[in-house]
């Protein structure tokens, strides 16, 4: 049996009022990964935004705010007694779906403001984003804020540090290594996107493919999590996954229809 004990202190160091956490470090590195790959993809597509730094800054801000909002809505009881905890981003509690939604809306606004091709922007962002998500899960492994349900399976995490963010009754209990599952899912999606990115496809196809693949995978792996049930036995992440998957499939069908309709329209002219 491979039961991995996670006893690392989530806090790396405390310097006065500043707390340096493994989670925050992982998120920072993830952002760098996404920024570097996105810039590379934009240049490959012949897009040279002179205001790239501004685009990055507000996209990251939108992503973080969206990620935090989704987390707060999922666990309102944690913040009712101490609302200021909402702003303790460095302690963990950033939902991936919220990050994608917040970042997506930010890019939509910024592309219109700076007159940039929105669909090509999101296609350029997709590979770096999914790879960043994979790396960010390292922070969740230490933090314990994305825990799995108790398990008797041979491969499990056992959190022993009392500062871990999972429920107290799960300390010293073998749980599904959910962050590893999510990391593997993100890496698999990244491989697919990296292979598809140079193909001739309608703008927006790569991002919609990312959403569809991740949503389908996330729906499945969420069954090993221990989360609040919304309805029909489904967790929040699974409900959002269904909505995201349907939206992505509709978008892919629409993009395919546009591609097929274009030659017919040209022939008619």
Helix content: 55-70%
What form results from the Cα inertia axes? globular
Class from secondary-structure proportions: mainly alpha
Q: Reading side by side through the largest sheet, how are the strands ordered?
A: 1-4-5
- Computed Rg: 20 Å
- Tell me what portion of residues adopts beta-strand conformation: 5-15%
Number of helices: 8
Which regions have little confidence, pLDDT < 50, spanning 5+ residues? none
The N- to C-terminal Cα distance equals 68 Å
Largest sheet, in brief, is: 3 strands, mixed
Number of strands: 7
The total tally of domains equals: 1
Mean of residue pLDDT values:
85
Q: In sequence order, what are the helices and strands, one letter per element?
A: EEEHHHHHEEHHEEH
Characterise the protein shown here.
It contains eight helices and seven strands. By secondary structure, the protein is mainly α. The chain has one domain. The protein has a three-stranded mixed beta sheet with strand order 1-4-5, with no helix packed on it. The protein is globular. The mean pLDDT is 85.
Tags for this model:
269 residues, globular, mainly alpha, 61% helix, 3-stranded mixed sheet
